[in-house]
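Internal QA ticket QA-208
Title: Verify multi-chain structure generation after dependency bump
Assignee: T.L.

Test input:
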Amino acid sequence: MYVRHLQLGSFRNWERVDLPLRPGPTVFVGRNGEGKTNLVEAVGYLATMGSHRVSADAPLVRHGAEQAVVRAALRREDRELLVEIEINPGRANRVRVNRAPLPRPRELLGLVKTVLFAPEDLVLVRGDPSDRRRFLDDLLVSRTPRLAGVRSDYERVLKQRNALLKTARLARGGALATLDVWDGHLVDLGSQLLAARLRLVADLVPHVAAAHAQVAGPEAPLAGLGYTSTVPLAGDGTPMTAGTPLPDVAELANALRERVAERRQDEVDRGMTLVGPHRDDLVIALGPVPAKGFASHGESWSLALALKLGCLALYRADGEEPILVLDDVFATLDTDRRAALAAVARTAEQTLITAAVLDDVPAELRGTRVQVAGGAAFVVEDDTVLEGGVR
Amino acid sequence: MYEGAVQDLIDELGRLPGVGPKSAQRIAFHLLAAESADVGRLVAALQRVQAEVRFCVTCFNVAEAEQCRICRDPRRSEDVICVVEEPKDVVAIERTREFRGKYHVLGGAISPIEGVGPDDLRVKELMTRLMNGQVTELIIATDPNLEGEATAAYLARLVAPMGLAVSRLASGLPVGGDLEYADEVTLGRAFEGRRRIDA
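Actual output:
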């Protein structure tokens, strides 16, 4: 799929911008602080209803405005798709698809597929487990939209259960009488989430390994993925292969239920839920060693890039062609990695690239440019200004 | 901002559920322009609600006497009790005219985040009613959300030793709707709760 037309209103620094886009690579070029990333951030928002840079929606709305609007006309297998999002910080967003309002904004998830790679993605390798869980869950929801409900219900159960455990710690033995009830919800939703994550990691493994070999070269150690859980699993944390047998939801529910029972006293003592997929982690390995703590800066970059290119390959294996967004990454890659990334970017149906310096972007991707300067964005092709919009 | 009394009225109205600042302003100016007799009736109605409405000593529904209209009605069965979260749920079920038993209003659902546990609900009172021996069936009609389900599961466990018939309202497809418009969760529940057709 590709974005044919992007329109923003009061989004970040853009009061208004109206931009026709084409399939193939497009480079957004301009000096720092002009708002290049803001343009591609809006494309990412269409897919995840979130930003890759901030966790809350408030910074996305232009200073002084009450709401921001992202409107995109996309083409997906020769069909037109018009998505309109009204971002209302502190209130529910409103979403329309082909002019019809969605009863719940969440239903948009999974419709627009993007793979976004940005400097922030280094946290996938070096950051906290929560960053990797978010990566897995966002990808899960995009591939299986039904899980958006499971994910948000699980988070709600967790909040309720933690609140209960906190009050239980302050004596009142009676409060624990309802803990069994929340355990039931936790096990039911947690096992569904866990099963889906394990399936996803197993699906990702061959794609990430292949992408890593392409990015880091054939001599580099094999990139592996594993999953480490608070629920006892066979082969916990060790790299999976495509053929790794996976437990089903019922088995996981039993294991989770047992573990919750075992840890009950610890949970009461500490006043929080200690067992469940919210405490798990994706293990990224380089050869025999875990990447976190062992991989060099360059190796970490390669792994982060391989993870994202692995997502792209996974979507393709599902029969989807996502929009590839490369936010400010070419400047930080060496020549070989640039060439490897360019080779993939060339094959994508649409690649949106941001760069402060055009020369950082490999020549074969430079055909169409969007010049961002002085509060305006213009489409330039072969040095001729075609069309554009003003901020 | 408006002058004293008007702004006070807008602020008070704005604290009501479902009334935003714009609506509060509209209602306030509507009241300013209204006949004083109309406003008088509204004031009287508000004061009467405060003074006269109480909660039924048996089921905790809103009542104007010691007991509510439903608990006093001799034609209604004493064998079945339907448990709901709020008095407005009683009204909703009454509209169906399907249920001829009595109610029990819990006054909310279990929600540790809001500090609501079983002791904050009318659970003890429910147990006392169930213990008198006449009740044979309990229908749990709490909301079909996480908190409502948790409350239902808790009550079901609590009354299990009493040997009553306990049921939970079914969830599934809306009547008169289209299958294609149902969300996955609802449709999944409808599948789980499917019924055999007796031909």
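Spot checks passed. DSSP finds nine helices and 16 strands in chain A.
Status: verified.
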